[in-house]
Amino acid sequence: MHKLSQNQGITIDKKHHSLQADCENCFALCCVALPFAASADFAIDKEGGKPCPNLQEDFRCSIHKNLRQKGFQGCTVFDCFGAGQKISQVTFNGKDWREAPESAKQMYDAFSIMRQLHEMLWYLNEALSLKAANSIHKEIKLALEETERLTYLSPESILEIDLIAYRSNINELLLKTSELVRSDFRRQDKKSRGNQKKYSRGADLIGAKLKGADLSGANLRGAYMIAADLRNADMRVADLIGADFRDADIRGADLTGSIFLTQVQINAAKGDAATKLPPILIRPGHWSI
Q: Measured between alpha carbons, how far is 21 from 276 in angstroms, rounded to an integer?
């Protein structure tokens, strides 16, 4: 079990607090349930359902302080959106996979689904906080309440959720939210209008040289920004849902008001003290000062 980072004086929105990993109340599900392969992110191969060799009896990680140095960078990037503690303490009533090995597989499968539900809750909570999307707040609130209800179902019922269909419905709301927010921004900041055509959804920006680029208000949903040079880039109010920030250099970049950015994306990037983040996100401990 390990904590991804420490809160460095940043105020976290109460709505998002329960959607952050609380490793102290989790049975190290990410260290057991998930598989990983030897790569730049992980030093070894591990099958899903098998405990990581670094996991101790108390569900803590024996190399937590040196994960990156030991070749486990992927562990410092991952975030479960609080699904780990929900599965551990609520869905399975505090009974861990060692204590009840007969329910271990069910717990691991439910964890995978719960993580996706909690990710949707993260996005919906953010959408509900955006004033520019006020016209659809009622729809968003209903979706939020229904998603929250699903997270309290029994293990058996959680495994029966049709996630593909459900995510599709939630995505429609998030798309509407994004367009409303970015349109409002464009009306207020005319210079951002050109970004709508220059940078688009799913854009291939792998290794792109975008130092100081104006990406404000752009739709960068699912964009590939791996190892891109985004130093001092303006990404205010850009839709970044699903964008791949692995090894992207965002030192000095301005992500103020960016839409649907998550801790996982920030953890995967390279930033510094000058990087401007939305207040609900935590500045990773491995970033440069």
A: 22
Rounded Cα gap, residues 22 and 121, in angstroms: 16
List pLDDT tens digits, range 212-251: 999 999 999 999 999 999 999 999 999 999 999 999 999 9
Split at pLDDT 50, 70, 90, the class of 20 is: confident
**How many Cβ atoms sit within 10 Å of the Cβ of residue 138?**
10
| DSSP per position, 1-68 | --------SPPPPHHHHTTS--GGGS--HHHHT--B-SSSS-SS-B-TTS--TTB-TTS-BTTGGGTT
- CA 64 to chain CA centroid, nearest Å: 20
SS3 217: coil
Q: Which letter does DSSP use for residue 191 in this model? A: G
Contact indicator for 178, 197 with CB cutoff of 8 Å? no
- In whole angstroms, how large is the CA radius of gyration of the chain? 19
Q: Are 235 and 211 in contact (CB under 8 A)?
A: no
pLDDT at 92 over 50: yes
Output the six-digit token pair for 110: 């439910």
Q: Which two tokens stand for residue 276?
A: 């401007």
